[in-house]
Write a structure and sequence with these properties.
This protein is mainly alpha-helical. About 80% of the residues lie in helices and about 0% in strands. Helix 3 (about 55-65) packs across helix 4 (about 75-104). The longest helix is centred in the first third of the chain and has 38 residues, at about 5-40. The radius of gyration is 20 Å and the shape is globular.
Length: about 100
Amino acid sequence: MRRPVAALAGRHIGVTAIVRDSAAATGVVLGLLYLFPIAALAVGDQAVKRRLEQIGPMSAGLDSQATIDLHGLPLAPWAGLGVVALWAAGALALGGALLRLRDA
């Protein structure tokens, strides 16, 4: 059985929109991951640098995996895990809000 051309075109447009949205989401996530470490390198003030390292998802995630030399880390491992969990909860909340707004 042959599918109508309009149905195939609609399917192609839908897949393209999903891929474009996925690429944009991936870009946002990578931007957020690398924003805080780059900003921490650019800042001269040590207190601000430490704060950026504490709230950034990448450095917090790496701190949560550490097992040695814990005194030199911006966060303790459990605190790092908490920061990562807050970033994940924020992403889920934002995704849920966008889903409600777009598909309502």
